[in-house]
Write a structure and sequence with these properties.
It contains five helices and six strands. It has helices at residues 3-8, 22-29, 63-73, 108-114, 118-132, and strands at residues 10-14, 35-39, 55-60, 77-78, 81-82, 84-87. A hairpin with a 2-residue loop joins strand 4 and strand 5 (81-82). The longest helix has 15 residues, at 118-132. The protein is elongated, with a radius of gyration of 29 Å. The protein starts with a helix and ends in a 21-residue tail after the last helix.
Length: 153
Amino acid sequence: MTDAARLKATVYVGGLDNAVNERILTDAFLPFGEIVDVSLPKPEVPSSPDPHRGFGYVEFEIPGDAKEAIDNMDQSELFGRVIKVAAAKPQKETNEGLGSKTAIWEQEGWLAKHAVSDEDRLAAEQARNKSDNRPDDPMQGLEGLDVAGPQPV
């Protein structure tokens, strides 16, 4: 199965209680179809007493089963907590986004999105030069406007 097909067949399950384990998650989602894999990511801090990070992923054999699980299990209750069930999103690369070890402006995606073309840079410079020719005092040229209201003819 390709990665895209696997992603379509995988659901994200959030808001899980600490008592939930892989077996319980499998039993809860088994009515919707054949399950290929269940994962509960471990906490990032090894000394954490929590068994998982409060969310997990359930991968089904068929993408249609994943959609059925989302439709039926989203906002349902599991171990006294309302769970969020949605289509899984692709995992970001470790060198992309806010959690990366690379400066955001050095990342390929950011540069492609925020790069300024030479044409735009030249236009901005010309606009700056035009504004430099204006007088420094914004009130200059308003000497004849010392009387409010319409001018007598």
